[in-house]
Amino acid sequence: MTDMTTRSQLEGALVAAASNYSWTWDRHTQSLFSQLPSGTGFLHPLQRIRALTDANYDRFLSDRDFIEAAMAAALRVRQPERDPNAEIAYFSPEFGVSETLPQYSGGLGVLAGDHLKAASDLGLPLVAVGLFYRDGFFHQAIAHEAQREMYERSDPRSLGLEQMPVMVDITMDDRIVKARVWRADVGRTRLYLLDTDVELNDERGRKVSDRLYSGDREHRIRQELLMGVGGVRALRQLGYTPSTFHLNEGHAGFLALELIGEEVDKGLNLSEALDAVRDKIVFTTHTPVPAGIDRFPHDLMERYLGVWSDRYGVSISELLSLAHMPGEPETFNMAAFCLRVASRSNGVSKLHGAVSREMFSKVPGGPEISSVTNGVHAKTWVSNDLQEVFESAMGTNWVSTSSESWKPVETIDSSVLRRVRRKDRQYLIDLVAERIGPRVELDPDILTIGFARRFATYKRADLLLNDLDRLEQLLTDSDHPVQFIFAGKSHPADDSGKEIVHRVASFAASEAARGRFVFVPDYQMAVARRMTAGCDVWLNNPVRPHEASGTSGEKAALNGCLNVSILDGWWDECFDGRNGWKIETSDAADRMERDADEAASLYSILIDEVAPLFYQDGSPMSDAWIEMMRHNWKTLGPFVTASRMVSDYDRFVYRPDLRL
Question: Model's pTM, two decimal places?
Answer without folding.
Answer: 0.96
